[in-house]
Write a structure and sequence with these properties.
115 residues; mainly alpha
């Protein structure tokens, strides 16, 4: 069995995100920011496993919203402010209705963007 270094796993995560964003037809100018935002959580040992599980669900939920990039930026702020980021990510991964509700709220709320 081949053991992969954490940097190899993060690079694989980045590559998978790039393919997913391309499939979801996100504008190229937003893809690198989205990949960078999510990859930062993958590089954190506390949230690495959770963000890998949540990322695809999150991006698929954000894509049809009014402003996917504003929503993703708001999600990033929300994750970073959360007391238990890994627990929050597990909760969202297990509750797609909550993920959809908050994604819609974050996509339409300039208030969260201004915080």
């Amino acid at each position: 069995m081949t053991k992969h270094s954490p940097s190899d796993l993060v690079q694989q995560f980045r590559d998978d995100l790039a393919c997913l964003l391309n499939d979801l037809t996100w504008p190229p100018e937003h893809c690198e920011e989205a990949i960078g935002s999510l990859t930062a959580h993958a590089e954190d040992p506390i949230t690495a496993a959770e963000i890998v599980d949540l990322a695809e669900k999150l991006l698929r939920t954000l894509s049809p919203t009014a402003d996917p990039m504003m929503a993703l930026r708001n999600w990033d702020r929300y994750f970073r402010a959360s007391f238990n980021r890994a627990g929050l990510m597990r909760l969202l991964s297990a509750n797609p209705d909550l993920l959809t509700f908050l994604s819609g709220l974050f996509a339409m709320s300039q208030f969260f963007s201004d915080i």
